[in-house]
Design brief:
Elements: H1 2-22, E1 41-52, E2 55-68, E3 73-84, E4 90-102, E5 108-118, E6 123-132, E7 137-150, E8 153-162, E9 169-178, H2 185-188
Antiparallel strand pairs: 1-2, 2-3, 3-4, 4-5, 5-6, 6-7, 7-8, 8-9
Length: 190
């Protein structure tokens, strides 16, 4: 009887040890390819300047930026881009929640509450906007709604193309306009 109870105790203790070992923390084994790619560098208060023959074309500011060298990509948070005219004077400002910059072409994509405001008062807003650096063009995909305000006039539509100063622009489809006429100065007594 003693041998049986000793054997029974050993089996019960062994089962308890196995149960306790099975309840411990275990690390999942995952293939290396499923890990999220880490940036090569992270920078706070990031600034990048684009020049042509010594003249500043634009400056990008970001609270934080992550660079991915293998993809020639910079991903930035809370961006502001100042665009400059041929005389080197700031002509417009773009702000957005995030942006991507191709380090080779310097093409950019801005996303999230994107607003481009010119110094003359024209305002463009959308959820996504691209800047083609070589062509010096602002482009909004045809899937995105665009709103342009100039004075009291408002234009909306889908898809858009313009220079960074919003002087000459084109909507791609479904354009609607609200134009508020102003009385000539002679009729208002001024």
């Amino acid at each position: 009887m003693i041998a049986r109870s000793s054997l029974l105790r050993t089996i019960v203790l062994g089962a308890i040890v196995l149960l306790i070992a099975g309840c411990g923390q275990q690390r999942a084994v995952t293939p290396a390819a499923s890990k999220q790619e880490l940036p090569d560098q992270e920078v706070s208060d990031f600034v990048i300047t684009e020049t042509e023959a010594g003249a500043v074309e634009w400056k990008l500011y970001a609270k934080k930026a992550s660079t991915y060298d293998a993809k020639d990509l910079v991903i930035a948070d809370h961006i502001r881009i100042d665009f400059f005219n041929e005389q080197g004077v700031k002509s417009s400002e773009l702000v957005a929640r995030e942006g991507e910059i191709n380090q080779r072409s310097r093409n950019m994509t801005a996303r999230g509450d994107v607003v481009l405001q010119t110094t003359e008062g024209t305002r463009l807003s959308s959820q996504e906007m691209r800047f083609l650096n070589r062509e010096q063009l602002i482009v909004v995909p045809e899937t995105q709604l665009v709103r342009v305000e100039r004075g009291s006039d408002v234009l909306t539509g889908y898809g858009f193309q313009s220079d960074p100063q919003l002087k000459e622009f084109e909507f791609k489809r479904q354009v609607q306009a609200t134009v508020r006429s102003r009385a000539p100065e002679s009729e208002t007594g001024r």
